[in-house]
Amino acid sequence: MSNALRDVGVVIVAAGSSTRTEGGELKQFRWVAGKPMLLHSVQRFMERADVAMVVCVLPKSHAGDPPPWLFQCDIERLLVSVGGRERGESVLNGLEDLPPEVRIVLVHDAARPMVDSDTIERVVSKAREGVGAVPALPATDTIKEVDERGIIVRTPDRARLFHAQTPQGFPRAMIEEAYLRAKADRVRATDDAALCERIGARVEIVEGSATGMKVTTDEDFARVDALVKLAR
Prior knowledge:
By secondary structure, the chain is of the alpha/beta class. The chain has one domain (3-231): Spore Coat Polysaccharide Biosynthesis Protein SpsA, Chain A (Alpha-Beta Complex). 30% of the residues lie in helices and 23% in strands. The protein is built from seven helices and twelve strands. The protein has helices spanning 37-46, 60-63, 87-96, 117-127, 172-185, 192-198, 218-231, and strands at residues 8-13, 31-32, 35-36, 51-58, 78-82, 104-109, 132-138, 145-146, 152-154, 162-164, 168-171, 203-207. A five-stranded mixed beta sheet has the order 5-4-1-6-11, sandwiched between helices. It has a three-stranded mixed beta sheet with strand order 10-7-12. The chain has a two-stranded antiparallel sheet with strand order 2-3. A hairpin with a 5-residue loop joins strand 8 and strand 9. Helix 3 (87-96) packs across helix 5 and helix 5 (172-185) crosses helix 6 (192-198).
């Protein structure tokens, strides 16, 4: 595929400083399923010929001297950006570093190292239709909404509830406007789609994957290792 057709930019958010695991190592650099967690995601996205650039947003303490294993990737399609004080600032820094040819933006959490190619393709295809795309799985448990005292106030219909994953994909103009307006209004959100929803943009779900689980605790690392071994 020629460079002219490389119009997808990827922002991988890996700027967190919390470990929530033993040993004190940043979880995005910890090895899981045979390689550092962040490296899984970078290499997965670089498998796509339409990806123009992958921007890894790292903590300020590491952005100037990234771990050497990161350069096992296609360095011509790799940039390192400096993380902000909170997730939204980190994503905005990554967006600003994307090259001008990017028309579709994917935002991915480094804590989801086992995202599969089919999920990425569904997200990109939906975003190319001019809408936001969120991979998601249906909720299987009953969800309870509670007040500040822990008293249940509502039980939503789980048939309409989904667990959101990443990467979330958007037309570039949509996600940039969403973040610029959020910055101006000092609004935060737990995911990128929420900011797009806030400005009235259309966002749809696509089928997610069980392998797109978020890796946070030591038990999660062990679970991913076990899944990979079973798949071999």
